[in-house]
Amino acid sequence: MTKLNAKIPSGPLAEKWTRYKTDQKLVNPANKRKLDIIVVGTGLAGAAAAASFGEMGFKVKVFCIQDSPRRAHSIAAQGGINAAKNYPNDGDSVYRLFYDTIKGGDYRAREANVYRLAEVSNSIIDQCVAQGVPFAREYSGYLDNRSFGGAQVSRTFYARGQTGQQLLLGAYGALSKEIGLGHVELYHRHEMLDLVLIDGRARGIIARNVVTGELERFAAHAVVLATGGYGNVYFLSTNAMNSNGSAAMRAFKRGAFFANPAYVQIHPTCIPVHGDYQSKLTLMSESLRNDGRIWVPKKKEDAEKVRKGVLKPRDIPENDRDYYLERRYPAFGNLVPRDVASRAAKERCDAGFGVGNTGLAVYLDFAESIQRLGRNVIEARYGNLFQMYEKIVDENPYETPMMIYPAVHYTMGGLWVDYELQTTVPGLFAAGEANFSDHGANRLGASALMQGLADGYFVLPYTIQNYLADQISVPRFKTDTPEFDEAEKKIHAEIDRLLSVKGKQSVDTFHRKLGTIMWENVGMGRNEAGLKLAIEKIRLLREEFWKDVRVVGSKTGVNQELEKALRLVDYLELGELMARDALLRNESCGGHFREEYQTEDGEALRDDQNYKYVSAWEYKPDDVPEKHVEPLNYEFIEVKTRNYKV
Amino acid sequence: MKLTLKIWRQENAKAKGRFETYQLDNISSDCSFLEMLDILNEQLVNDQVKLPVDTISFDHDCREGICGMCSLYINGRPHGPEQGTTVCQLHMRHFKDGDTITIEPWRAGPFPVVKDLMVDRLAFDKIIQAGGFTSVSTGGVPDANAIPIRKEDADLAMDAAACIGCGACVAACKNASAMLFVAAKVSQFALLPQGKIEAKERVHAMVAKMDELGFGNCSNTYACEAECPKNISVENIARMNREYFSQAVTKADRKQNGGGAG
Fold it and tell me: For a tag site, which of A42, A377, A420, A535 has the least CB within 10 Å?
């Protein structure tokens, strides 16, 4: 029944990528000029891919929804980027980075893809340094490293607390160079609303110019989606306001399979929710766990007093504090992977030990580090994060511990891709967070930047040639074909329908309702009854949406309400898909924690016998989506229970 | 909190704009400035009896002070009253109950209004496209530790590279000068060995593009530094001027064309 072929090259793990590159087809320079590539998204994956394609000689069109490619949400990544350089001489290697990533992903990622990721990681750092990315350095002049969760080595390169910004600006610089040279055409303030297929291949997109409101047609020989994740389905997440899942969902409806939609990363260290007017959640970098210690009061009565504001955290003596991560996971302590840290925080708060006025917060305390290293060292490492915290919460984290709570941060699921990053639609590729490929059921910190840039700089520039090599005789496409007509007509109808409902509830009202359903039932802890309830509730909400949504403004010109409404249309379907995927995965793995499947001490209970696979969903018009399965075969490593205790 | 808001409304780049007055009540002081505008927009959607009405358009994205998209001119100051803060990180606790707040878009020739409070900052992209990069292609570069860089230089480069490209410096300057934005990028590369190779071409190309796009001369008032949400120092302008004048363009340079940072 399976239609999925991951196209993993044969041979030993460490030789697969080399073999692929040796055997793949290439496109000669004269032919590259005749081939067009569309890249949607200008985050790390999209900007890196578009710049690299331009340098190689392809004709590239690149699209971003913001006013400039430099705004893509990769810019907000704080902590760092992993690579297997082993500069600190602490025992790192390509194999170890590969192994940590597979293990961190709870044995639900593809061996070959992850090994390639680890293999190209070092080239990324070289590339970024050559671009002038100002990474942190030691007094010797050489690059500095720090540690992230799920690793026992220091392999994370960083640029203060703004690593994503600096890497993105490096890629944006490379992209700008290619735009300046005329190899890449930039379409800013454009939002992709459909994928156009001709004879079963991806041949173009329809994008809405959000300034004029017009729908515009673009054709190419291949399309790359680098459109990020879908965490905003929860309404509140650490994603940017404009980050959305629409490009992926619209590709899904054109035949691209959606893999592991249930795998969502809930990041343990975010600033807690403080009011119902809140529009987004702010992350406090995982790097803080290098020097911060996480705790809650040991006694319930202390926790209660803290919640009422009668007791200050500093008043609680050392003996009455529960450093629960250090207690439960002595080997990794505060640096356990994100899924483990998030669940542990939820467990303590659910048990009544939470702090903050809502009881949904734990402390992240720097007092000991400040005493040990001095305030200036802590300030140099995390100054901008402390400042950001103080601006939002109005408390000084140098003097009182930060309060943090888990929040939706990243989606490991995404469009299904093979080893070449090609989706099930020929000619449609997906890169970065938009694909599902490398992080399994849980992503390790500082690995998103690595994967985005790996896909963009060092994977797609090879694999896309293998596809385009037999397209060299295909002439450039016109956009006045029936396929483009049909796609455009469909979107016009959708927009007209949204504007004509003229109901009573705003788009955000519906989005908040969807977010609540998702957070309560498809969040950190999931169970069968809750997931079934979520599917039903989302279906009802969708019906209500189409009867009662109030989208103001008009079709022409800027209309931010309409933009949000179009995205919500897709979230209302994606949310259900996530719940369906979670319901059928009767095990706990990584970020997917099914309450029915846990050990006696509350750890995730995986079922390798029955679920060691990737689920890939196929869209069925007017029916529920169909689930396909790609079995995961571990040839080179032993699949074990994840253990961060010893 | 109770607030009176005077907000610039303008349908599109060609239309004539005007201030409209709005009343808001029950705003929490923990609310961010943009969340306050969300509440206002929600009120506009819900309260109006007749369709179609329109919400107030403003640019925003990350809402954590790093993407550089938000761009509001509040009570005569870019990004509002708090030093070193973007609008999205500004909270209502910095205003008083009963305040009247005036909100306008960036006002600068090279940043035309798109709608209401949104402006077009493509001019910044064009300046970067003229040379704000090292002309390295993907692949074929040496090991990252092959060239050590003094920590002090790397730190100074990072200080300059922290610019978020929001345009507050231009909006703050009476001459609508982009000197601070350009100087930050020029400085970042001038301080690093990887950037030094093209330093001469870069500074001339970027400054020429800046002039061509209609940004004014430096007003020497340092309003840019005072209003920069990332505290980018005007020392970068001094560094850029040194770069510019110490690296006069020769005839041989002018003959070269196309490609690279120039």
Answer: A377
CA distance linking residue A614 with residue A42, whole number of Å: 27
Cβ neighbours of B84 in A, within 8 Å: 387
Hey, which CATH number is domain A268-407, 3.30.470.30, 3.40.50.10490, 3.50.30.50, 3.90.700.10? 3.90.700.10
Question: Domain residues of chain A, as ranges?
Answer: 13-263+412-471, 268-407, 482-607
What does the pLDDT look like over A343-384, one tens digit per residue?
A: 999 999 999 999 998 899 999 999 999 999 999 999 988 888
pLDDT in tens, A413-439: 999 999 999 999 999 999 999 999 999
Q: Can you tell me the distance from the alpha carbon of A114 to that of A344, in angstroms, rounded to the nearest whole number?
A: 27
Overall fold of domain A482-607: Methane Monooxygenase Hydroxylase; Chain G, domain 1 (1.20.58)
Say whether residue A225 is in contact with chain B using an 8 A CB cutoff: no
Length of chain A: 646
The residue of chain B nearest to residue A184, with distances taken between CA atoms, is: B129
**A392 contacts in B (CB within 8 Å)?**
32, 89, 91
B188 in A contact zone (CB under 8 Å) = yes
Q: Give the residue among A628, A205, A188, A222 at the shortest CA–CA distance from A429.
A: A222
Taking the CA of residue A303 and the nearest CA in chain B, the distance in Å comes to 23
Structural domains present in chain B: 3-115 (3.10.20.30), 122-135+148-255 (1.10.1060.10)
Give SS3 for A128.
helix
Q: DSSP assignment, residue A335? A: G
Q: Is A71 a catalytic residue?
A: no
Residue-level pLDDT at B2: 97
Q: What is the ipTM of this complex?
A: 0.95
Question: Which range is least confidently modeled, A251-255, A263-267, A629-633, B246-250?
Answer: B246-250
Candidates A208, A250, A328, A338; catalytic one: A338
Going from the C-alpha of A517 to that of each of A175, A238, A288, A572, the distances in angstroms are 40, 18, 31, 11
